[in-house]
């Protein structure tokens, strides 16, 4: 009887477990400066991530307002919000909240109202150019 005719699994076809990738341990997850993050740092980072998740819908709604009002893309709406934020020295989230409030007949704060028209002119010039 030849080996290929023997009953049972062939040695070359037997499934072998794949080698495992080394698991990351806490010692391997280090900060850029070489140290380990402290509990306080991890807690602060977690809090920042929670705030970002809460603020994102507001920013997305403001992008939608700009998209509807000015017929811009979502990316262009983001760039407009960022530009106004940088030039008015206001957080993007606060610019977004103020813009959304205008849909409820609330006036824009003066420091944002100064820069929004300039952002529109800049956006239209980039679109036409």
TrEMBL record:
<feature type="region of interest" description="Disordered">
    <location>
        <begin position="1"/>
        <end position="39"/>
    </location>
</feature>
<dbReference type="InterPro" id="IPR036388">
    <property type="entry name" value="WH-like_DNA-bd_sf"/>
</dbReference>
<feature type="domain" description="ANTAR">
    <location>
        <begin position="39"/>
        <end position="100"/>
    </location>
</feature>
<feature type="compositionally biased region" description="Basic and acidic residues">
    <location>
        <begin position="9"/>
        <end position="26"/>
    </location>
</feature>
<dbReference type="Pfam" id="PF03861">
    <property type="entry name" value="ANTAR"/>
</dbReference>
<protein>
    <submittedName>
        <fullName>ANTAR domain-containing protein</fullName>
    </submittedName>
</protein>
<dbReference type="InterPro" id="IPR011006">
    <property type="entry name" value="CheY-like_superfamily"/>
</dbReference>
<dbReference type="InterPro" id="IPR005561">
    <property type="entry name" value="ANTAR"/>
</dbReference>
């Amino acid at each position: 009887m030849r080996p290929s005719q023997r009953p049972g699994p062939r040695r070359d076809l037997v499934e072998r477990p794949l080698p495992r990738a080394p698991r990351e341990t806490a010692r391997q997850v280090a900060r850029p400066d070489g140290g380990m993050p402290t509990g306080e740092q991890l807690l602060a980072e977690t809090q920042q991530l929670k705030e970002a998740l809460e603020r994102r819908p507001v920013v997305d709604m403001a992008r939608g307002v700009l998209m509807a009002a000015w017929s811009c893309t979502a990316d262009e709406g983001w760039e407009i919000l960022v530009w106004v934020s940088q030039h008015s020295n206001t957080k993007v989230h606060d610019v977004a909240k103020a813009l959304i409030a205008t849909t409820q007949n609330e006036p824009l704060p003066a420091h944002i109202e100064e820069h929004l028209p300039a952002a529109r002119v800049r956006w239209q010039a980039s679109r036409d150019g």
